[in-house]
Amino acid sequence: MKLYTYFRSSAAYRVRIALALKGIAYDAAPVHLLRNGGEQLGDAYRAINPAGLVPALEVDGNVIGQSLAIIEYLEETYPQPPLLPATPMQRARVRALALTVAADTHPLGNLRVLKHLTGPLGVTEEVKLGWQQHWLRTGLSALESLLADDSRTGCYSHGDTPTLADCCLVPQVFGAQRFGIDMAPYPAIMRIHAACAELPAFQQAHPSQQPDAE
What we know:
7% strand, Glutaredoxin, four-stranded mixed sheet, globular, 2 domains, alpha+beta, 4 strands, Glutathione S-transferase Yfyf (Class Pi), Chain A, domain 2
């Protein structure tokens, strides 16, 4: 099993957390998103993942793209410990929390979106940062409400064991802090983030612990 990854990629970070929580061994294949114009855009990597995005997981000659699809595959093939809860309604809630990050928030600050803003659209670095911070705050505010106002939230995003939702929450906090977001308005998120940070799996998956960390 080989994971094409980049240490600062939030999407790759999600998958690394899931792999670590499940205790799955893998080979890391770093793909530098900035070097030489972005290694993910080169022919060699596009032959592996035509979308030109990380992560991608290669298993027995097959390649899976998209972080949530990869984690769902891991859940089906390595069911213990589970990252999705037992009932359909509980699973729906966890997936909704995860998608609040992975679909509604993260894509608007993705590298290729930001490069389009400063490239073809010609916005300044200051405007670009304002764009990032606006959508980060919008997404974090929604996630905070979903977590703080629901009795199903426990020590973690759903109950008292880590789930798919936490695999998404922790990297999003890392990205928000990296881009200067004040996290004080999001106490439920930060409480969960602190609980996750105590677990070896989350520590192992952190960007600073990756072989390509700078």
